[in-house]
Amino acid sequence: MSSNGALTAAERAALDATIRRAEQACRAEISVFVGTAEGDARAFATSLHNTLVAPSRSVLVMVDPQRQVVEIVTGGHVRRRLTDEESRQAVAVMIDRFAAGDLAGGLSEGIDLLGTLAKD
Asked: Which Pfam families match (predicted)?
């Protein structure tokens, strides 16, 4: 990941549209956090996921560009349709784009894939 983690207003708007499409496809809430993970990245992502309105029906994508870490946390309801292996596929897609310096594109492509994979 060579991006500094900053998304432009246009990139945020496009990412929001991607999230909404993915949510409609998979009928789950999708949240994205891009920033510094405090302490253990997985524990931090899990704690963020637990603060969501409906954690069991939610997916959290946490990206720490400085530490080059991506975590996906899924709630119990979503986990029945989205396997850990499928989440790893989405992470791999994101990391490939991040490595090319494309944070927004990586997030969009990964979230789109999550929405497709998590369909009923």
From this structure: DUF5130 (PF17174)
pLDDT tens digits, one per residue of 48-100: 999 999 999 999 999 999 999 999 999 999 999 999 999 999 999 999 999 99
Determine, yes or no, domain membership for 50: yes
Q: Are 57 and 79 in contact (CB under 8 A)?
A: no
Nearest residue to 72 via CA among 99, 53, 93: 93
Task: Please state whether beta strands 58-64 and 29-34 pair in parallel, antiparallel, or not at all (unpaired).
Answer: parallel
Does this model's pTM top 0.90? My answer is: yes
Q: What is the dihedral of CA 86, 33, 109, 1, to 10 degrees?
A: -100
| CA torsion through residues 111, 13, 7, 99, sign | positive
Here the tokens at position 59 are 């997916």
Residue 96's domain comprises 9-117
Whole-number Å distance between alpha carbons of 13 and 115 = 18
